[in-house]
Write a structure and sequence with these properties.
Layout lengths: L27 E15 L4 E15 L5 E7 L5 E6 L7 E2 L6 E11 L2 E10 L3 H22 L8 H35 L1
Antiparallel strand pairs: 1-2, 1-7, 2-3, 3-4, 5-6, 6-7
């Protein structure tokens, strides 16, 4: 029996062009990202309904400095939470769980519609939930300061960098002063 080695090639009927997809996250820097599950409270049926599982992100706009919460579902990447963190948003513990938080949103922009929602978010552990709360509170304070026309509190990394620069400048100044003090002594010795 003879087996033929046939190289079959079919040309595509339609040629597809590469499409640039915009996520609208291009002008933002992620300051927090963690896997979680999001729920919304259905007022009609008085029950919690799952909105999706995925990575919750706090994104800081590069120009305005405002921080928003964005969460997309795994695989489909469909938005399940999208809102700015305002000063009236307060995280309260969910009854019976140390790893979830509940808060009210005046305008959650999901599917291009602003809706008033009560949201709950659950994490894998209480440590992760507390990390989220710290980042959420910090973002709320940042947005509150921006709304009041103040400069938000600088990031810890930026503060540390500034301290290091100040120390380096101080050392340089000290060395320059020592050198200046030594120069007249050397001139006195020559005379």
């Amino acid at each position: 029996e003879e087996v033929e080695n046939v190289d079959i090639h079919f040309e595509p009927v339609v040629k597809l062009q590469d499409v640039e997809v915009k996520t609208h996250e291009e002008d933002e820097t992620p300051i927090f990202k963690m896997r979680s599950k999001l729920f919304r409270f259905d007022m009609e049926n008085k029950e919690w309904k799952e909105r999706g599982t995925g990575d919750v992100k706090l994104l800081e706009h590069k120009e305005s400095g405002k921080v928003r919460l964005l969460m997309r579902r795994d695989k489909t990447l469909k938005v399940c939470a999208n809102h700015y963190i305002t000063e009236d948003m307060v995280l309260s513990p969910n009854v019976g769980s140390d790893r979830s938080w509940v808060w009210n949103v005046a305008a959650d922009l999901v599917e291009d519609e602003a809706e008033r929602q009560m949201l709950a978010i659950r994490f894998g552990s209480s440590d992760k939930a507390n990390e989220f709360k710290e980042a959420f509170e910090k973002a709320r304070n940042t947005n509150k300061a921006l709304a009041a026309g103040e400069q938000p509190e600088k990031k810890a990394e930026t503060k540390a960098e500034e301290k290091a620069e100040d120390k380096a400048e101080a050392k340089t100044d000290d060395k320059a002063e020592e050198k200046a003090a030594e120069e007249p002594k050397e001139e006195e010795k020559k005379d």
